[in-house]
Amino acid sequence: MGSSKIIRTIAQKLFPFIMLFGFYLISHGHLSPGGGFQGGVVIGTAIILLALSYGIEKTEKKFENKRLSMLEKLGILTFIFLGFLGIYLGHSFLGNFLPLGKPGQIASGGLMLLFNIAIGIEVAAGVSIIFYALVRYRGEI
Amino acid sequence: MFKEMKKAFFIIIILAMAILFILSIDIEYGNPKNLDVANYYIEQGLYDTGAINLVASIYLGYRAYDTLIETIVLFVAVAGVVFCLRGKR
Q1: Would you call A119 an interface residue with chain B, using a CB distance cutoff of 8 Å?
Q2: Do A112 and B86 touch (CB under 8 A)?
Q3: CA nearest A83: which of B47, B53, B75, B69?
Q4: B52: nearest CA partner in chain A
Q5: How many CB contacts within 8 angstroms connect chain A with chain B?
Q6: B64: containing domain
Q7: Which of A30, A94, A134 sits opposite B53 (nearest CB)?
Q8: How many domains does chain B have?
Q9: In sequence order, which ranges of chain A are alpha helices (DSSP H)?
Q10: Contact call for A31 and B77, based on CB within 8 A
Q11: pLDDT of A10-34, one tens digit each?
Q12: pLDDT in tens, A128-141
């Protein structure tokens, strides 16, 4: 199963760059347009590209469904845990208790980077799980 | 008895909605006089949250529970897709 050699080669070369762009969008969510949701969807798209070009079996060997669903739960639980930690240590839900730092740097904004990473992991895993489910139970590529 | 109470409750809710609607008729949305909250976000957002991106500071700072539910929406969507498709091989 899979596509022609041209598509496979281009997908293989393109995959790390799409992944990198997704991580960039997530980690710069509080500095530039983007954020956890958008970056997560970009990473999910990279996995979908691999599945479309190489076939679902080969992709599932690298990105296992079980591990992805574990990552999704981990992301949302991290988000909820950090949010309620904000009530305990800060002043409100999603309240900030880390130092704010210098505006414009990556390490600014306190908890915002961690929230973005948690949302990004959750969305990336969720998008690819939906794709896996549609492929596996509703036909094949 | 129960039916009449239900009817009275319904009428009270309709009346409350009508009163709210009438009270909010003379508020002009988008009027510069009524932009207190927006101006507060623009002026104080950077100092409150430390993020340059104003959208992120509203989305992950001021808007607390809304963001949590927005994240749960995708989680529930994934669970629903897997649940509905699982038995149909």
Answers
A1: yes
A2: no
A3: B69
A4: A31
A5: 97
A6: 2-85
A7: A30
A8: 1
A9: 5-27, 36-54, 56-62, 65-89, 112-137
A10: no
A11: 999 999 999 999 999 999 988 888 8
A12: 999 998 888 877 65
